[in-house]
Design a protein that fits this description.
Layout: H1 2-17, E1 29-33, E2 36-40, E3 46-53, E4 60-64, E5 69-70, E6 77-81, E7 90-98, E8 101-110, E9 115-123, E10 133-138, E11 141-146, E12 152-158, E13 162-168, E14 171-178, E15 184-187, E16 195-206, E17 216-223, E18 228-232, E19 239-248, E20 252-264, E21 270-285, E22 289-290, E23 295-297, E24 302-310, E25 315-325, E26 331-337, E27 343-349, E28 355-364, E29 369-377, E30 384-387, E31 394-396, E32 401-404, E33 410-412, E34 419-425, E35 432-437, E36 441-442, E37 459-468, H2 473-476, H3 481-486, E38 492-496, E39 500-504
Parallel strand pairs: 2-8, 9-15, 14-35, 16-22, 16-23, 24-30, 32-39
Antiparallel strand pairs: 1-3, 3-6, 4-7, 5-6, 7-8, 9-12, 10-11, 10-13, 13-14, 16-19, 17-18, 17-20, 20-21, 24-27, 25-26, 25-28, 28-29, 29-38, 31-33, 33-36, 34-35, 34-37, 37-38, 37-39
């Protein structure tokens, strides 16, 4: 009986496999994956894939309504990016077509959630800007507030992206397209707070001795959390005088004094280091005179740092600079090499805890310059690569343009991997505007509501500064932000264009 059942079951197999519906069919189809997505304006994107079966042909993509952008209009894959902002939740239909075949996906785009912006305004000296009016512009709505004594401000109910405007006197600063909740806004050209100062001097001894032999130099430097300064020691006596060491903030500052002596050749490049010394824990108080801060140098060995510079097309090398850096922030500038070679190999002092800062400057025929700084290098580093990006050159309007108003577009070549500070300078007490933007164009902001309207028939100048590496204005408004690059404390590049002039409309 079991054998009979087995034979019957085996006889059914060919019948089952011959039944209709066991194959994939030949009907042409077009499908999209995924068939739906939910995104928030101003953030993220979504990849959609189309599959064409039992047919061949080009797949075309379209949006309805035309809200947001597509990475392509044809192909088997496309990336949808929502708009920067949107007033209310909107459904966008993504359609793929190939011949007579059609498939759709629905994309829900929601407005960004409201955020509270709690930021800080600081000056170029890192000190807080107190009592400065701040305007946060979001979706056509202006939120006004004022910084407190610590330079802090807070605005709630903001829909990102937003613009942040700071005003002090006739100066204005505008960060465009922010989304972060904790921006640090740097007020260019403004140094708030109470200035402190003290005089610092002493005598350096040791090394090759004093009077120094020919082609010797001794440099001193002071560094603390609040202040840095430097001075050259007298070649005959070893006396150094930093004059007035200035800082902001506390009434006292405590740091270190460093002294370095070296022999240089006919091109002013170091060939041998004769001595290094330091005096630690030197306290300066506001208004004080601190003489007799003597430093004794002892022998120091040498190392070599080497590498190469890569220039952008159309740029000529201007200089390569090398400085010895210390943990307290002080620097001793050792050399400036104006030679044309893009390769370098320099003798360095092998001082415990010291690093090397390289800084390279180049320029183009339009007068735009770019500087790349690379700090924190080992004294014996090899194959150091220092690439320079092309700076931002003016595009439009042409020099000496007339009839300029708030609708005039100011454009420039983008600074690769960075953001732009577009500076509009007016004469005398007329308003100045600084626009921080990732875009390669901007307009003069209309700040009539805060008393900084653009004056009529007035001559202005404008320049473009670039700062990198920053992927967005958000990144440039982070802790340290773009100012850290300008101060040379972190690796990065900065550029500056020449001035162009224009006259505002009557």
């Amino acid at each position: 009986m079991k054998r009979l059942l087995w034979l019957l079951s085996m006889s059914l197999i060919p019948l089952l496999t011959a039944c209709p519906g066991g194959g994939g069919g030949t009907t042409p189809t077009l499908t999209i994956s995924p068939t739906s997505a939910t995104l928030t304006a101003g953030t993220g994107n979504q990849v959609f894939n189309a599959t064409l079966s039992n047919a061949s042909g080009t797949i075309n993509w379209a949006l309805s309504p035309n809200v947001g952008t597509l990475s392509a209009t044809t192909g088997t894959s496309v990336t949808y990016t929502p708009p920067a902002t949107i007033a209310s939740s909107t459904t966008v239909q993504l359609t793929a077509t190939s011949g007579s075949l059609t498939a759709t996906a629905n994309i829900t785009v929601n407005p960004p959630a409201n955020i509270t912006v709690s930021g800080t305004v600081i000056g170029a000296n890192l000190q807080p800007v107190a009592s400065a009016p701040v305007v946060i512009t979001s979706g056509g709505t202006n939120f006004s507030t004022t910084t407190n004594a610590s330079g802090l401000f807070s605005v709630s109910g903001v829909t990102p992206p937003y613009d942040a405007t700071v005003v002090s006197g006739n100066q204005s600063l505008i960060y465009k397209g922010l989304t972060r909740t904790d921006p640090t806004l740097v007020f260019l050209g403004f140094s708030p707070g109470v200035s402190r100062s003290a005089s610092l001097s002493g005598t350096v001894s040791g090394g090759a001795g004093f009077p120094q032999p020919a082609n010797h130099v001794t440099q001193t430097a002071f560094g603390s959390p609040e202040a840095v300064d430097s001075a050259t020691a007298n070649t005959a006596t070893g006396v150094y005088n930093m004059g007035t060491v200035s800082w902001f903030g506390p009434t006292t500052t405590t740091g270190n004094i460093h002294a370095l002596q070296w022999l240089f050749d006919g091109t002013n490049l170091p060939t041998d280091y004769k001595g290094y010394g330091e005096k630690l824990g030197v306290a300066l108080s506001d208004g004080g005179a601190f003489a007799g801060q003597n430093v004794t140098m002892s022998g120091v060995s040498e190392a070599t740092i080497s590498g190469s510079v890569t220039l952008p097309a159309g740029y000529t090398l201007a200089s390569k600079r090398m400085a010895v850096g210390f943990a307290d922030g002080s620097l001793i500038n050792v050399l400036t090499d104006t030679g044309a070679s893009t390769n370098f190999a320099y003798t360095t002092p092998n001082v415990t805890g010291a690093t090397i800062r390289m800084q390279v400057t180049a320029g183009n025929a339009a007068g735009t310059s770019v500087i790349t700084t690379k700090p924190g290098l080992a004294v014996n580093a090899t194959s150091v690569s220092i690439p320079l990006p092309a700076g931002s050159d003016h595009s439009l309007p042409p020099n000496a343009a007339t009839g300029v108003n708030h609708s005039t577009t100011f454009s420039y070549t983008p600074f690769s991997g960075g953001v732009h500070l577009v500076v509009f300078n007016g004469p005398g007490a007329n308003p100045d505007y600084v626009v921080v933007t990732a875009a390669a164009s901007t307009t003069i902001p209309n700040l009539s509501s805060v008393g900084l309207g653009l004056p009529a028939s007035t001559g202005y100048s404008w320049q473009v500064y670039g700062v990198a590496p920053f992927a967005s204005v958000d990144a440039a408004a982070g802790p340290g932000g773009w100012l850290a690059v300008y101060l040379g404390g972190v690796e990065g590049s900065r550029s500056v264009s020449t001035n162009r002039t224009f006259t505002t409309a009557p």
